[in-house]
Write a structure and sequence with these properties.
The chain has two domains: about 120 residues, serine acetyltransferase, domain 1 (Orthogonal Bundle), CATH 1.10.3130.10; about 100 residues, UDP N-Acetylglucosamine Acyltransferase, domain 1, CATH 2.160.10.10. Helix content is about 40%, strand content about 15%. It has six helices and 16 strands. The strands form four sheets. The chain has a five-stranded parallel beta sheet with strand order 1-4-7-10-13. The protein has a five-stranded parallel beta sheet with strand order 3-6-9-12-14. About 35% of the residues are buried.
Length: about 250
């Protein structure tokens, strides 16, 4: 007989994640939802056969003010970097990149408590909504900015320092996919003040992108980049005139 799995937890975690996100930014929501959040958290952990749920909830709850502090800095980074933004309120309410970072920071706090399945379920929920795939094990510094965001992949052992900007389609991945590498650093380190433009791919646990560097669109990087570098991919594009509506 096949083993039974609690796949219905997907719906429970989806609702839990949404309400946790709402409570983080709304004091009235926080007061009203606190009993639900704790009860549901304990229920999820019990279903996942994780013990000491009360203690884990207390530890997680004490981290929420710090999570909120970091997210406020992220929101300011969005407002400062995106010329299309009109207010901070717009960032909190309408930006998928900020939504993805918010759920990442919540799931990362749980990941650091050695809770693994729940944070992964949270990250997959927000991945499905935004198209942004951030592993909860990644380490991301303050004032992180994602522009557009669709197709971004940030692997488990990635390290991103403060004031980093990333555009859509960027991959911070590993060079190899092998189970025996599970405990090793497989993903790159991005130092502070780096900008990574659309569809750049950076692979490898030993790779360091030095601070203040700019990584251009569509580049493929498997070696470290010194600080203050500009990395670009160049291809020849020809533009020719048309004659009488027919290509020359």
């Amino acid at each position: 007989m096949n083993k039974s799995y609690n796949v219905c937890l997907k719906d429970t975690v989806k609702t839990f994640t949404k309400r946790l996100f709402y409570a983080l930014f709304d004091e009235e929501q926080a007061k009203d939802r606190k009993p639900y959040l704790k009860k549901t958290f304990l229920k999820i952990l019990k279903k996942l056969s994780i013990e000491d749920g009360e203690n884990l909830w207390e530890q997680f709850e004490t981290q929420l003010p710090e999570v909120r502090r970091k997210l406020d800095l992220d929101a300011i980074a969005f407002e400062c970097n995106d010329p299309a933004s009109h207010s901070l309120e717009e960032i909190y309410l309408a930006y998928p990149g900020f939504h993805a970072i918010s759920v990442y920071r919540l799931s990362h706090a749980l990941y650091k408590l050695d809770i693994h399945i729940l944070p992964r379920m949270m990250s997959e929920y927000i991945h499905g909504i935004t198209g942004i795939d951030i592993h909860p094990g990644a380490t991301i510094g303050e004032s992180f900015y994602i522009d557009h965001g669709t197709g971004i992949v940030i692997g488990e052992s990635s390290i991103i320092e403060k004031n980093v900007k990333i555009y859509q389609g960027v991959t911070l991945g590993g060079l190899q996919v092998s189970k025996d590498l599970a405990s090793t650093k497989r993903h790159p380190t991005i130092e502070e003040n780096v900008t990574i433009y659309a569809n750049a791919t950076i692979l490898g646990g030993d790779i360091v992108i030095g601070k203040n560097s700019i990584i251009g669109a569509n580049v493929w990087i498997t070696q470290s980049v010194p600080e203050d570098s500009l990395v670009t991919y160049q291809t020849e594009i020809k533009i020719r005139p048309r004659k009488n509506g027919i290509r020359a």
